[in-house]
Write a structure and sequence with these properties.
Number of helices: 8
Structural class: mainly alpha
Number of strands: 0
Number of domains: 1
Strand content: under 5%
Length: about 220
């Protein structure tokens, strides 16, 4: 059973947490809208397999481990960005195309944004788990989330590569979304690492100023 860290308030269970209920409902409605008539249903399904796993894991373990509202907000924000990418396919997201045209870029960089957001938005929840589950403190409480982000990011790249090899070639290429970049996977993992480092640095700076971890309670 996870124990409370003195500087990290334990989250409020879902049935008592009005903010989390509203945020989850809003995400569910948005996800349902993005699930309707995606550009490629097959690509959408592949992209959402890990989402189904993540949400299922959060639901299955909710009674034993409740994240803080900051962590839940970060997770939901990442899932929203992913829902957009899976609806349009990452290489064809309109926001990325607009940015490509506005800045004269050689490709749609929406996938790069989401990989950066993966590290940025999931770095704090992973550190919260590190503090409350492993009871590791000090510098290692920052090192472990970084290792976890790199492991998860590389695992996703492996899944992408196998999907590209085993399914229909066109579907596999759409899922990978490399857009002709030979070093796509390495760049994606690098951006996830940078995002995580940024999140952990910001969290450490906040703690130095306030004396405690960033937290948003149910009343916020």
């Amino acid at each position: 059973m996870a124990q409370r860290h003195p500087h990290l308030p334990v989250g409020v269970p879902f049935h008592e947490n009005r903010s989390l209920q509203v945020a989850t409902g809003a995400y569910g409605a948005f996800w349902a809208a993005m699930a309707m008539a995606p550009v490629s249903r097959e690509t959408w399904l592949l992209e959402n397999l890990l989402v189904f796993f993540l949400v299922g894991a959060l639901v299955a373990t909710h009674r034993r481990f409740v994240f803080s509202n900051v962590s839940y907000a970060s997770i939901l924000a990442f899932l929203v960005l992913h829902a957009i990418g899976s609806h349009y396919t990452y290489s064809a997201v309109p926001a990325g195309q607009w940015l490509q045209e506005a800045l004269g870029l050689g490709r749609n960089h929406y996938d790069r944004v989401v990989h950066f957001a993966f590290g940025l938005l999931l770095g704090y929840p992973l550190r919260e788990m590190t503090l409350r589950v492993t009871h590791v403190h000090g510098g290692w409480s920052f090192v472990i989330p970084v290792i976890a982000i790199l492991a998860l990011s590389s695992f996703y790249e492996i899944i992408e590569s196998w999907a590209a090899r085993t399914v229909d070639p066109d579907l596999g290429l759409a899922f990978v979304g490399a857009q002709g970049d030979l070093w796509d996977g390495q760049k994606d993992m690098t951006l996830a690492l940078v995002g995580c480092l940024f999140a952990l640095a910001a969290g450490a700076a906040h703690r130095r100023r306030s004396g405690h971890e960033a937290y948003v309670g149910p009343e916020a």
